[in-house]
Amino acid sequence: MNTQALFLIAAVAGVGILHTIVPDHWVPITLIARQRGWSKRETGQAAFKAGVGHVLSTLAIGIAVWIAGVAFAAKFAHVVDTVASLALIGFGGWIALSALREMRASGGHGHAHGHSHGHSHDFSHLAGTPGQDGVHGPELQAIETGDGSLKLSIFETGQPPRFRLTGTSADAVNVETLRENGARQIFTMVKRNEYWESRDEIPEPHGFTVEVTVESGGYTHKYQAEFTEHAHDNHGHDHSDEAHGHDPVNDPLYAPLRGASAFS
To answer: Measured on CA atoms in the order 103, 107, 111, 117, is the torsion positive or negative?
Structure first.
């Protein structure tokens, strides 16, 4: 007997021994024996009968499957080859169509999207004034995606503050905020003609990290940006640092992101 045969026998014996150690092989017999008050002899006999039945039934099933497989291969070998080839062609075509859909949804570019960080711009001197396009608020976050630029802002001119997003033809969008104290809130975005707008208004203060989730063509992409709280009084309220008792130098809401992603 050669070395390979010995190794195979040892491997099969080892797997068999480990297989019998699995609790679902012996726990049921133990529980039944305890419930019925069997002696050790009676328990051993029951375990032996169950083990022999298990082995024989497994062998019978294995032999039946093997015989059926040999017969099927002898009769339908050419059909199996054809079906396998067609399946490979179909799978390749499905991958190609999925890639094409993603390229069209993302504007013609097929490369992967990474996690981009928005660039925070200081427009505090324009606080309360809408952007030049009439869609965005003054604190505009430009988020580079590799396929263009998403523009995210907080718009609160003549209405409660809400997120507005442009630059994507996505199927669904949501924005999640993460504040310094760890509080999170998810804002579902609703399509409004040329821009997306959050359904819920944004509570004060407006200093937080945001994660924008864009779903398009069956794919999900996430991007990050940061908003910094500035003094503004769009709604007739005094949001100045003195009114809130904040010291901008020491207020953590004014601190930039440090280290790794806050959402990781």
So the answer is: negative
In the 8-state DSSP scheme, what is residue 187? E
The pLDDT value given to residue 191: 93
In the prediction, which pLDDT does 117 show? 44
DSSP 253: G
Pick the closest to residue 225 from 257, 258, 259, 201 (CA basis): 257
CA end-to-end distance (rounded Å), the chain: 57
pLDDT band for position 215 (cuts 50, 70, 90)? very high
**What does the pLDDT read at residue 106?**
57
C-beta atoms surrounding 157 within 10 Å: 13
CA proximity to 212, closest of 103, 118, 109:
118
Q: Where are the chain's structural domains?
A: 13-105, 124-254
pTM of the model: 0.40
CATH number of 124-254: 2.60.40
Q: Are the CB atoms for 164 and 155 separated by under 8 Å?
A: yes
Model confidence band, residue 162 (pLDDT cutoffs 50, 70, 90): very high
Residues whose CB falls within 8 Å of the CB of residue 211, separated by 6 or more in sequence, listed in order: 175, 176, 178, 222, 223, 224, 263
Record the tokens describing residue 250, joined without a space: 């020491």
